[in-house]
Amino acid sequence: MISKLHYISQGETPEIHLANIQKACSSGAEWVQLRLKDVDQETLLQTALKAREITAHFQTRLLINDHYKIAKEVKADGVHLGKTDACPTEAREYLGKWLSIGGTANTLEDCENLIKKGVDYIGLGPFKFTTTKTNLSPTLGLEGYQAILDELKTDTPIIAIGGITIVDVPSLLKTGIYGIAVSGEITSNFNNIATLNNILSTPATQEQVYKFDKKKNDE
After folding, report:
1. Gyration radius (Cα) of the chain, Å
2. Is-contact 162 126, C-beta < 8 A?
3. Is the whole model's pTM more than 0.70, yes or no?
4. Which whole-number Å values give the CA distances from 18 to 59, 168, 200, in the listed order?
5. What pLDDT, in 10s, does the model give residues 22-60?
6. Residue 7 β-bridge partners
7. What DSSP character marks residue 138?
8. Is the pLDDT of residue 127 over 90?
9. How many CB atoms lie within 10 A of CB 186?
10. For residue range 168-190, what is the model confidence (pLDDT) as tens digits?
């Protein structure tokens, strides 16, 4: 099952990425994507191995950004492929049917192509401007998501991504998106995971929210 809340790691060094992943897991994250850019393959592999240790301890699902062969090597739960990365069909042949494959989309056409290639979910965005990615397509806003989802009519989970904050989520959910992927809003305050899970109201996360905020859930 695809989580409705994805945490995308960030940090200036691999060590900071790992520290943030640890904090996210201990704060109730169910789904973490290791998004480590501009490092050599060995550094990425070693960081991914450590991330797998952390996420396995918390029973959190781990996806690796871009590198599907490393995802398989470290026994991650899947891979997220950007638009310039490997073809999802190629990744599926290598990974088999059990690992999750997500793909990035900016347009309706992107979504349709990814669905044809059998991805398990689509990260559609950007919702707003974000500093975590370069060479972005125009922002979609609420109207963009609504127009694409109205036309798409798919069972493939659509995950909104790009500069999303807590206050944006209720309006985004009204467009019909399945869930959200968040980086900065969580990294700035890992307690936001519980808040976001509450807003998303996913049954799988209610137990974790209860653990971190028992009093609130008892009211």
Report:
1. 16
2. yes
3. yes
4. 16, 27, 25
5. 999 999 999 999 999 999 999 999 999 999 999 999 999
6. 32, 182
7. P
8. yes
9. 28
10. 999 999 999 999 999 999 999 99
* Structure letter (DSSP) for residue 125: -
CA 6-123-87 angle, to 5 degrees, is 120
CA 78 to chain centre: 11
Smallest CA-to-CA distance from 181 within 159, 166, 201 is with: 159
Q: What distance in Å separates the CA atoms of residue 134 and residue 61, rounded to the nearest whole number? A: 26
Side chain identity at 195, as an amino acid letter? T
Task: State how far the Cα of 186 lies from the Cα of 191, in Å rounded to an integer.
Answer: 7
Q: In degrees to the nearest 10, what's the CA dihedral of 145, 149, 101, 195?
A: 50
Q: Using CB atoms within 10 Å of the CB of residue 167, give its burial: 0 to 12 exposed, 13 to 18 middle, 19+ buried.
A: exposed
Place of tokens 């994805």: 6
Contact call for residues 50 and 36 (beta carbons, < 8 A): no
Place of tokens 């500069």: 163
